[in-house]
Amino acid sequence: MAPKPHQIPQKLGKALKRSFFARSVHDVAPELIGATLLVDGVGGEIVEVEAYHHTEPAAHSFNGQTPRNQIMFGPPGFAYVYRSYGIHWCVNFVCEAEGSASAVLIRALQPTFGIGEMQLRRGLQDERMLCSGPGKACQALGISIAHNGLALDKPPIAIHARTETPNIVAGIRIGITKAVELPWRYGVRGSRYLSKPFPK
């Protein structure tokens, strides 16, 4: 479900198609910063992501295809949803050519649309904390395993391109223990909505 007309700010960019994701994960990841992610009309501006490439151990696809990660091995432009630590859902956007099995993890959003619904789902009022982490963002947007394998350019999911390039900062990913720390985390410099501040 798209936002109602009166809810859409004039600066909301064009809807991204699956072809947007058919490129290097290292090109897609920083370009998603500032884009708007909506699920059934609820969501906000992407302020933090991490890139994962199949050639490094931190990627779920590193050891090959399994029932859990099979969406990563399919065509680009689809959602890969998995359970983290048996507790939280996390959503990734599959990138690169079919078989590459690379993806971008959505780590944090700045809430924009449907804030009241996010507050109900999260059981808190503080807008800064609604989507400040991959599990929090999925809970706030109502993302679950039911969204695994869904196209990123068809309802209930919509992603709108940014209209201005924010001040983007890069740094090492968070909680990586299986691989060399790589500067594949991207975010809006100084955003209050990040899961964790970037080092100065």
From TrEMBL:
Its EC number is 3.2.2.-. The keyword Transcription regulation does not apply. GO terms for biological process: base-excision repair. Transmembrane segments: none annotated. It holds the Pfam family Pur_DNA_glyco. Keywords: DNA damage, DNA repair, Hydrolase. The keyword DNA damage applies. InterPro entries: Formyl_transferase-like_C_sf, MPG, MPG_sf. GO terms for molecular function: alkylbase DNA N-glycosylase activity; DNA binding. Belongs to the DNA glycosylase MPG family. This is Putative 3-methyladenine DNA glycosylase. It comes from Tardiphaga robiniae. The lineage of its organism: Bacteria, Pseudomonadati, Pseudomonadota, Alphaproteobacteria, Hyphomicrobiales.
